[in-house]
Amino acid sequence: KHKNPIDFIKSLNSIYLLPFYKFVHLKDVEDAHKNKIKLLVWTINNEKEIKDYYEKGVDGIATDFPNLFKVIDIKNLKTKVG
C-alpha cells in the first residue's frame, strides 16, 4: 500500500522512523524532517559511520559501543540537514 516509508509513518500518526542505517541517504533525512518525522538509525558500530550519519542530520544513532561517542567531537561536527 505504501511505497514510501514516510507515507507509511504518517498513516500511523507516528513521528519516528527507525531504519537500518545502510538504507538511509541524505534525501531520506531531508524528507523525514520536512514531514516532522524524527529519523533514528541502527546499529552503527564504527566511528567513521557514526560521524557520517550525524553529519547527514539523523536524530539518533543506536550502537553496541556507546563509548564511541566519547571519541567523536560531536559538538564540532556540522549537519547537512537542519
Describe this structure in words.
The protein is α/β, with parallel strands linked by helices and 82 residues long. The chain has 4 helices and 3 strands. The chain has helices at 5-11, 26-34, 47-56, 68-71, and strands at residues 16-17, 38-41, 60-61. The N and C termini lie far apart (30 Å).
Question: How would you summarize the topology of this molecule?
Answer:
Blueprint (H helix, E strand, L loop, with lengths): L4 H7 L4 E2 L8 H9 L3 E4 L5 H10 L3 E2 L6 H4 L11
Parallel strand pairs: 1-2, 2-3
Give the amount of beta strand, in percent: 5-15%
- The number of distinct helices, counting runs of at least 4 residues, comes to 4
Oligomer: single chain
Structural class: alpha/beta
Q: Unreliable runs, pLDDT <50, ≥5 residues?
A: none
Distance between the termini: 30 Å
**Got a strand count?**
3
The residue fraction in helices comes out at 25-40%
Q: Quick one: biggest sheet?
A: 3 strands, parallel
Largest beta sheet: what is the strand line-up? 1-2-3
Rg, rounded, reads: 13 Å
- Indicate the overall shape: elongated
Element order: H for helix, E for strand: HEHEHEH
Arithmetic mean pLDDT: 90
Number of domains: 1
